[in-house]
Amino acid sequence: MRPDELTSSSFATYPPEARVFATSNLTVFQQMPLPLVVILLREVIGYDWRFPAERTTLDDQYTWLRSLSAEDRERAVNGFAHLSITPQLTAQNWVEHPQQASENLSAYLWSSHQMDAFHQAAGDFAGSMQKAAPEKSPDIPRLCVIVFGRGVRAQDYPLFRKLRPHGVYFPDVEAAPDMQPILDTLATRAAAHPEPYQHWFIDGEAGDTTARKDHRVAEVSWSETTSLRAAILARMQQVIHSAQGGPEQLRTLLATTTPADVGLAFGKDEVLSRFKLTLLTEGSGTQIFSTTFAQWAAREALRRAQPSTLVVRFGARQRQLPMDELVAGVSNAVADPAGSLVDADMGAFYTWINQQRLSGAAQAKFIAWSQEHNQAIVLGAGLPRGTTAAGTMTLHQLLAL
Amino acid sequence: MGHGQLNPGRLTDSQRIADALVWNRREFLRKAAGVGAGSALLGFSPLRAMALPAGQKAIVVTFGGGARDEETFAPDGQENIPQMMKSLLPQATYFGRVENHGILGHYVATASLATGVYETFDNFAAVPPANPTVFEYFRKGLKRPAADTWVVAPSNGFNRIGESGHGRYGEGHGAGVILPKRLLKAAMSSGDHSQYAHLLRDNYEDPFYTPELAGNEVELRQLDEILRLSMAEFTRHALTLSSPDELSVYIARQLMKQVAPSLLWITLHDIDIAHSGAYSLYVEGIRRSDRLCAELWQAVQSNPEYSGKTTMFILPDFGRDSDFTVGGNGFQHHRTGDALSRTTWMTVLGPHVRQGTFVERPVSSLDLVPTLGALLGFQTPLANGKPLVEAI
Question: For the segment B147-188, what is each residue's pLDDT rounded down to a tens digit?
Fold first, then answer.
């Protein structure tokens, strides 16, 4: 099928809100080159389970696309129109399965040496869109706090090496028994600005299953996903032991995993439940290492929900084992404290980069604190870069900076 | 797509990144390894107009699972490659900008390195390269026996890399392929495997992706007839090793000792644990690869069959994504096709190689095969790329 052959009935299998959204933008899709339509539909098909920030972005995008003159539209999508694709790609069921179609498209673009052209086209398209519909600033300056929790430690490891050039390093933070001041700050901000999915706590620490039950805070934790991870790892093992599937089949299987496949009950919040599922089905290593889980969850929360407040705690991950044992969930009791610290340190750096990608970056504040080492770093507006603070600071003082 | 605002660095221009990258390498090398800055400005001419004398050998070491500048040649990365910096680079010609414009998957990229053509097959399919490999060119051009060229490869997926599916070359004309993990499994076909589990792990992205090869006969024959190792000796030594790459280098050294092939290709793969997202394990893999390369070079120097007549090429198959590329997740993958993931380096050591030399101009990863051909004196008619005059 070609995009200009799309009709309203093409989206009959879409979830309700996605169907309405796609149908109302039918003319937009009909006028786009196939590679772009596939990418756009991949986003649209999940509309029912998008966070508010994602819905706003999608709404703005399509308002802009609908407003374009034929000439402007052609200019905006020109790069995609020049990609050559095969009849097989056109013939696949890209309307009902845009995720699978985009993977096939990606593989073809690589093999035909068109991936650079695709990236260029995507960059140009996104640039035009952002210029026409700039993102709104957050209601309050964004705050991100990273905690390197108990058991995440190493001797002689220079903490925050990548972050130090961008902020103030605090080598002497008064020992704190727990992260309660940080959670209090999270709760205070959530109470003052209770928009849904604007305040998050991502907990990578194993064993802490304490339910904080603040309905204004979106919580994702390594511990609570234990049974979900086990179910997904079991599916991975099925592919592995079949000796017939490679990583591509594995990735496809994971990407097409439905909540029902892994016995996921949505509870009261289907949007958040589906988000947790995607962390484990779309992330690499998130099923195995808690540090990877925490970093990827933070990345995805920032990218998708664009929160005002994000607290991430890294816990000690299991040591490396042969991959088949890791996938089988064998012996995850032995921790790797030093490796976890290195992973968390890099995870903090990546979280800061991802926070900086969001609107209001210049006003945003970022704190990383090591509970074991009593050190911290703070980055943000008005704070000097590349400096080391003298004297002792408390966690409360760091949060108040 | 609304996720594109990036303040730190705003590194979006591929060319600028590649330029900065090679500049950083040059400055770093000049300071840390004593490589003269002027060397980059020198014109090069082949040091030997004629083909090498008989008996010349070449060893190629590739890292399947690229290593980025950040963790290697950038100032903060130097602590991860002490052997490269202190021991190998002062003796080497170093190419600071090797560009790979092919598919960034490890098997297909390694196959492309071995054919000198950007192969386009499915990275995860157990198929031979479509174009003739350097091993076939070598054997055909120099009329060498099968035992004179070997590949030591990390996992089952590489078992077809020794020879192509090309009609004029192909089956029976390429290199023998040894899969050390497969060898170890065959050697301990019964009994408790738990002591060896750390040597049998696959990288994160391709756990068990290829079907097990049928039977153990080939491996057991390789152990006995080629490597001259008893099963007991092999499994006993394996217990002293700590990773699959260590096992590969052990096998390579055994090959050098027993068979002394003229063209030996070793693909290391521990670094690719990066796909699991554990930065510490990725860096650990780099440090191990650095040490193993130095050990291999020492093995060359101490083996009379190799000493004084061996050129060794060390290169990652490609890089990994930049921390700042939208759509990637930094070191974890090589999916964006950004400049950092496509730009890497190559170190060449050998008796005829200029020492402490930095080559700044961009070269292609496809240049490896024609360079090997020019070095050892065989034609590579279907390979793309050009011989690197600085290395021959």
Answer: 999 999 887 678 889 999 999 998 889 999 998 877 787 777
Tokens of B385: 């790329």
Query: Of B62, B50, B33, B67, whose CA–CA distance to B283 is shortest?
Result: B67
Are B278 and A289 within 8 A, CB to CB? yes
Residue matched to tokens 């991870």: A229
User: Which tens digit of pLDDT belongs to each residue from A352-378?
Assistant: 999 999 999 999 999 999 999 999 999
- Residues from chain A that touch B125, judged by Cβ atoms under 8 A, are 246
Nearest to B207 among A129, A324, A343 (CB): A324
Of the two residues B263 and B15, the one the predictor is more confident about is: B263
Given the cut 0.95, state whether the ipTM is greater than it.
no
- Report the C-alpha gap between B300 and B356 in whole angstroms: 19
Mean pLDDT over all residues of chain B? 81
DSSP for B212-238, please give it.
PPS-SHHHHHIIIIIS---HHHHHHHH
A125 reaches B (C-beta below 8 A): yes
In Å, what is the CA distance from B169 to each residue of A71, A200, A291, B130, B135? 53, 60, 48, 10, 10
User: Cβ contacts of residue B6 below 8 Å, gap of 6+?
Assistant: A353, A356, A357, B12, B324, B326
C-alpha span between A199 and A225 (Å, rounded): 20
Task: Sort out which chain A residues have CB atoms less than 8 A from B204's CB and list them.
Answer: 284-285, 323
pLDDT at A77 over 50: yes
Greater model confidence, A252 or B164: B164
Instruction: Give the CA count within 13 Å in the CB-facing half-sphere of B388.
Output: 28
The residue type of B300 is V
Q: How confident is the model at residue A329 (pLDDT cuts 50, 70, 90)?
A: low
Residue of B nearest to A238 (CA): B208
CB contact under 8 A, A321 and B205: no
Question: What pTM did the predictor assign?
Answer: 0.89
Q: Tokens for A9, please give them.
A: 């009935």
Q: How far is CA A285 from the centre of its chain?
A: 14
How far the first Cα of chain A sits from its last, in Å, is: 57
User: What is the residue type of B254?
Assistant: Q
Q: What is the pLDDT of residue A238?
A: 75
Q: What is the CA radius of gyration of chain A?
A: 23
Residue among A91, A68, A69, A81 nearest A37 (CA): A81
Express the helix, strand and coil content of chain A in percent, nearest 5 each.
50, 10, 35
Contact A107 B324 (CB under 8 A): no
DSSP one-letter code for B39: G
* β-pair type (A143-148, A199-203): unpaired
